[in-house]
Design a protein that fits this description.
The structure is a single chain. The longest helix is centred in the N-terminal third of the chain and has 22 residues. This protein is of the alpha/beta class. It is built from 11 helices and 7 strands. Helix content is about 40%, strand content about 15%. It has a 7-stranded mixed β-sheet, sandwiched between helices.
Length: about 290
């Protein structure tokens, strides 16, 4: 391999990365002027898994108001109060307007742990209290009443939870349970809340960084060829791709290294350097 070939490789990689990041910005026009909630299980989920989404959706020209709802303070190692402060700092680094846009629960119903399965009805109850209080209070409605909620979009994990963490998985099922209850007896109405979930991928794809972006794009293209009506089934695109550019990638890393300092163990350096979710996120809209 000659000198010029060696020199060309990083240039080609950087060009491809920049091109892919710019191209991805056209894939989610549905996320503008929305009230959006990112639902997570633990402090650092927002940085380790959702930073490309947050950095895109909090951009000033998007017109969005993004908030984070975290159902535990990650107290598995007795660092709950520390991790609460870290999440507030991370939210600011990832573009939230103020620290008031982060809500963190410290409840015995949602204990952090790989061996702890959260009750999905209790997850749904939290969402109902926060975003559809009329439903929570069980006020009587006629069939003709439109379903109402105080949020436009909820973003969370999919049914596999990305890392198969049971707390992540409970968020998916709890959110679906809430929205199904919201739509009960509301045939003919569209759900007022869009649920978008982060796609889980194989272990092999998790550590290839931005190189997974072309793979994700190709898989999305093939799925649309297989089902040309895919984007019309729920009144809009069902998939959205978010690819951070190099500056955004560094900002996501800072959310870990400067905010979540208590969590920066040796293996996390590998995740924030090579992890695909630090650069590439793809969302699927769930049908309720």
């Amino acid at each position: 391999m000659d000198y010029y070939t060696i020199l060309a490789i990083p240039i080609l990689i950087s060009t491809l990365w920049l091109f892919t990041a710019n191209l991805s910005r056209t894939s989610h026009p549905q996320f503008t002027n929305k009230s959006i909630v990112l639902l997570i299980a633990h402090p650092d989920d927002e940085a380790m898994f959702f930073s490309p989404i947050l950095l895109a959706l909090t951009a000033p020209n998007s017109g969005n108001h993004v908030k984070i709802l975290c159902l535990s303070n990650g107290n598995a190692d007795g660092l709950g109060k520390t991790r609460e402060k870290e999440l507030l700092a991370s939210g600011e680094l990832l573009g939230l307007r103020t620290r008031d846009d982060v809500l963190i629960l410290d409840s015995p119903n949602f204990v952090d742990g790989m061996n702890t399965v959260w009750d999905i009805e209790k997850v749904a109850d939290v969402l109902s209290q926060a975003f559809s209080p009329q439903q929570h209070q069980r006020k009587e409605h006629t069939v003709g009443d439109a379903p109402k909620a105080m949020v436009d979009v909820v973003v969370t994990f999919d049914r596999s939870g990305v890392s198969r963490h049971p707390n992540h998985i409970a968020l998916y099922h709890g959110t679906r349970f809430w929205l199904s209850g919201l739509m009960k007896g509301k045939q003919g109405w569209r759900c007022p809340v869009e649920l978008h979930t982060l796609t889980s991928i194989s272990i092999l794809r998790k550590y290839v960084g931005f190189l997974d972006a072309p793979v994700t794009m190709a898989l999305g293209f093939l799925s649309r060829l297989k089902d040309p009506r895919r984007q019309d089934k729920v009144g809009g695109r069902r998939q959205a791709l978010f690819v951070s550019d190099m500056g955004q990638w560094r900002q996501g890393q800072k959310a870990m290294t400067r905010a979540h300092t208590s969590q920066m163990r040796w293996f996390r350096w590998g995740w924030i350097t090579f992890g695909r979710y630090m650069i590439v996120n793809d969302l699927k809209r769930e049908i309720i």
